[in-house]
Amino acid sequence: MISALRAKRFFSQQSIWEVSNATGILPGKISLVERGLVVARPDEQKKLAEYFGCEVEELFNHSGQMIALQDAC
Question: How far apart are CA 41 and CA 29, in angstroms?
Fold first, then answer.
């Protein structure tokens, strides 16, 4: 199962480092969020959504958990 966040990053051909540099979120945190091991803070969710040009709800559900790609379809 792949997260919507990781899919957005993969299809936009962005490395974790590039996303980190643009958003100010540590690369390790992005990796943990993508794997569903850590919940991104609301401000981080907003930064990630803005970076990928989408709504927060496309990446995270109401409880802040990342959305798995199969759930997003």
Answer: 11
Question: From CA 70, how far away is CA 73, in angstroms rounded?
Answer: 6
Distance CA 16, CA 13 (A): 10
Verdict on whether the full-model pTM lies above 0.85: no
CA 71/CA 4 separation, integer angstroms: 9
CA 11 – CA 66 distance, rounded (Å) = 17
pLDDT band at 73 (very low <50, low <70, confident <90, very high): very low
Identify the CA nearest to 66 among candidates 21, 33, 26: 33
d(CA 6, CA 28): 13
Highest CATH level, class, for 4-72: mainly alpha
